[in-house]
Specification:
The longest helix is centred in the C-terminal third of the chain and has 22 residues. It contains 30 helices and 19 strands. It is globular and about 90 Å long. By secondary structure, it is an alpha/beta fold. Bound molecules: 3-hydroxybutanoyl-coenzyme A and 1,4-dihydronicotinamide adenine dinucleotide. 1,4-dihydronicotinamide adenine dinucleotide (NAI) binds next to α13, α14 and α16.
């Protein structure tokens, strides 16, 4: 018997324990061990029934995702199907006892048992679509038989887990067990030991009629095409569930297996698996070991109750951390608090939060006009106007007001953390926490390491990001840090393209079709074109003479067209902020381009995408080589969580690897020739392309060298 599976008997009930930390993934040895355990209980005359339970924090988090990479690179194909039939065919009833999560292959395993019991806090789900695949061990065939087609389609195509309570109401869980799950499951097994064991695969009563299913499947396909735009797996999952409604179980499994394999070998799945591991990788900082002590953050403060400060205060409150919110005067503070209240009210209206939850969160936010109570907080996030003099004044005030050991963080998006830190007597406590707008919604948190930021402060912020529901990525202190530094060339190219004759809508549409959540010009209108305009004016003295600079947005701003907030920018907006093309804009831009001597030409969607996306990649490669991002995957995670880059492309650096760095490099060289110095290829891109390597391999080499 595999040592990952243990069998003990509690009198007449066998307890089969899966012990494969950290999450009991069904990796090598586990299936074989369960198989042998089922044989053993059937051989043992003293055993009347069995339970299967997970050791540690969870039941089973699914198939071992690491194995998929091996399969797609030529390794043997492993299937759980024979094991699941073996369990279902057991002559003695098998009860699956679920705590933590039964996800993916974990839920498929559970459905092969004759009964399922669960702790009330457990969750079950088929999240495979988030990895670009579909359930591959009969999940699409057993689930509709147990809970009906509509909910099965929702779970397999949407990928969201359901609570054990909901699963019990659906008929997926036979009993919820408060208290000791193992004891409760053993008692349940004893109750059912003498009854005939029901097999999910033989049930048909919930499969519905052809007419009912046609309507469910059509609507599911429409939802998936809209909500998971560009992602192939949800549609494949719906096809597989449809097979369950039309074919006998074995044939349905064959359809599922074919679709599963197609998905597994797709670029989308490889990208999404890269994202799964990447999201966990970014938490690992080579020179800051896991054991680094972290500081408690039980009380926080935010300075500035504007767009960002208000959102950041909500983030702390949502995580249950009391927060002071400071502004300069009553009027600014009232405005800030009223926006917070409005935001929460909208969340209640949309069903995201209950009124009680919101009332409790609001209680945690205390508006203040001075620093008196700041001596009691563990961490401050400064979010005042973007200006070095003001930031330094605020940090000098914080240095006086806060106790020693408190973390002083800045939400600046462009200014140097080191210079801000120099205004204090404790630069080791100063760090950047760059939230994205809207702060209470966006998942990304760039954590900016100053030259003197201490390891404890960095480790604390990384850990805190998780508690705040964010994904923290550590970046270095350069202008724009990682995300915005790359966004500059991306948006620059979008403007250049318009100045060279591409339509505004054509530019945005090409990038939306690529998979981005929004086009670059519409994004500018949303954020406010004046933001970039002001920054460009401040940094104009740093621009090298003779290098082409985009001018269209500056001209729009000079006309007072700041985007959505002034109802005109690249687009015109109605009272509901719905955009429409501005019929006058093309002629206007043509005139500006004529004045600047920029010839007009027809520009393809392919060139639009290459110019914008490779501008991101080229700058990303520089950032990586200069060490402002720890790994290429860190850049990917930033772009997926802060900039609406499509997850199924894995992030800009992974996308470049997928296209092939040689090809990307050649295109960058072409643009270099056509458009000059701004397109000088990044040395790292050149080196990797010339040696036939990828950014992913660069990451591995860096890790090995660390
Ligand atoms: N395979 C391999 N490793 C896994 C894994 C899996 N299914 N699930 C989690 N892990 C690893 C993580 O990579 C992480 O490793 P690390 O410590 O080295 O970084 C470790 O387990 C702990 O995971 P988390 O940090 O995510 O821990 P949390 O407690 O925050 O979350 C969880 C636990 C909710 C189970 C979460 O890990 C999760 O959602 N896992 C993936 C679930 C999933 O997608 N299952 C489907 C797999 S595909 C499948 O089953 C196909 C089948 O149909 C045939
Ligand atoms: P904002 O203009 O909406 O709010 C700034 C607030 O700070 C105002 O309420 C102002 O009264 C207050 N303030 C000014 N001086 C103060 C002081 N001495 N003490 C207390 N409060 C003071 O600005 P916004 O957009 O919230 O930006 C804040 C910071 O966040 C800036 O550094 C900005 O660069 C950064 N940022 C902004 C993003 C955005 O999308 N708006 C995104 C990420 C970062």
């Amino acid at each position: 018997m595999s040592n990952l599976i243990k069998v003990n008997n509690d009198n007449d009930v066998a307890i089969i324990t899966i012990d494969n930390p950290p999450v009991n993934a069904l990796g090598p040895g586990v299936a074989e061990g369960i198989w042998a355990a089922i044989d053993e209980i059937n051989r043992d005359p003293a055993v009347k029934a069995a339970i299967v339970i997970g050791a540690g924090r969870t039941f089973v988090a699914g198939a071992d995702i690491k194995e998929f990479g091996k399969m797609t690179s030529g390794g043997p194909r492993r299937s759980l199907l024979p094991l699941l039939l073996h369990i279902e065919d057991s002559a003695k009833p098998v009860v699956m006892a679920i705590h933590g999560q039964a996800f993916g292959g974990g839920l498929e395993l559970a459905m092969a048992g004759h009964y399922r019991v669960a702790s009330p806090a457990a969750q079950v789900g088929q999240p495979e679509v988030n990895l670009g695949i579909i359930p591959g061990a009969a999940g699409t065939q057993r689930l509709p038989r147990l809970i009906g087609v509509a909910k099965a389609v929702e779970m397999c195509a949407g990928g969201k887990p359901v609570s054990a309570r909901e699963a019990a109401a659906l008929g997926l869980i036979d009993r919820l067990i408060d208290g000791d799950l193992r004891a409760g499951a053993v008692a349940f097994a004893r109750e059912v030991a003498s009854k005939p064991a029901p097999r999910a695969r033989e049930r048909t009563e919930k499969l519905g009629t052809a007419a009912e299913n046609a309507a469910i499947l059509t609507s599911a396909r429409a939802v998936a095409s809209k909500k998971q735009r560009g992602l192939k797996a949800p549609l494949a999952a719906i096809d597989a569930v449809e097979a369950a409604t039309k074919l006998p179980f074995e044939e349905g499994c064959q359809v599922e297996a074919k679709l599963f394999t197609e998905c597994l070998f797709s670029d989308q799945s490889k990208a999404l698996i890269h994202v799964f591991f990447g999201e966990r990788e970014v938490a690992k900082i080579p020179d800051i070991p896991k054991e680094t002590p972290v500081l408690p953050v039980n009380r926080a403060a935010v300075v500035g109750s504007g767009t960002m400060g208000g959102g950041i205060a909500m983030v702390f409150a949502n995580a249950g951390i009391p927060v002071l919110l400071k502004d300069v005067d009553e009027a600014a503070l009232d405005l800030g608090m009223s926006k917070i209240r409005k935001n929460y009210a909208n969340s209640v209206q949309r069903g995201r939060f209950t009124q009680t939850f919101v009332d409790e969160r609001l209680q945690l936010i205390t508006p203040v006009l001075n620093y008196n109570a700041f001596s009691e907080v563990d961490m401050v996030v400064e979010a005042v106007f973007e200006g070095m003099t003001l930031k330094k004044t605020v940090f000098a005030d914080l240095d006086r007001a806060c106790r020693k050991g408190a973390i002083l963080a800045s939400n600046t998006s462009t200014l140097s953390i080191d210079e801000i830190a120099s205004a204090t007597s404790r630069p080791e406590a100063v760090i950047g926490t760059h939230f994205f707008s809207p702060a209470n919604v966006m998942r990304l948190l760039e954590i900016v390491r100053g030259k003197k930021s201490s390891k404890e402060v960095i480790a604390t912020c990384m850990q805190l990001s998780k508690k705040l529901g964010k994904i923290g990525v550590l970046v270095g202190n350069c202008r724009g840090f990682v995300g915005n530094r790359m966004f500059g060339p991306y948006r620059r190219e979008a403007q250049f393209l318009v100045e060279e004759g591409a339509g505004v809508e054509a530019v945005d549409q090409a990038l939306v079709e690529f998979g981005n959540a929004m086009g670059p010009l519409a994004t500018g209108d949303l954020a406010g074109l004046d933001v970039g305009w002001r920054i460009r004016k401040e940094y104009r003295h740093l621009e090298k003479p003779g290098i082409r600079q985009p001018f269209a947005e500056d001209r729009l701003c000079e006309m007072g067209r700041y985007g959505q907030k002034t109802v005109r920018g690249w687009y015109c907006y109605d009272e509901n902020r719905r955009p429409s093309p501005d019929p006058e804009l093309p002629a206007m831009v043509r005139n500006w381009s004529a004045e600047a001597g920029i010839p007009q030409r027809k520009i393809s969607a392919e060139e639009i995408v290459d110019r914008c996306i490779y501008a991101l990649v080229n700058e990303g490669a520089r950032i990586l080589e200069e060490g402002y991002a720890l790994r290429a995957v860190d850049i990917d995670i930033i772009y997926l969580n802060g900039y609406g880059f499509p997850a199924y492309r894995g992030g800009p650096m992974w996308h470049a690897d997928t296209v092939g760095l040689q090809k990307v490099y050649e295109r960058v060289c072409e643009f270099h020739q056509q458009h000059g110095e701004l397109w000088a290829p990044a040395p790292l891109l050149k080196r990797l392309a010339e040696t036939g390597k990828t950014f992913a391999e660069f990451d591995k080499e860096q890790l090995a060298a660390a």
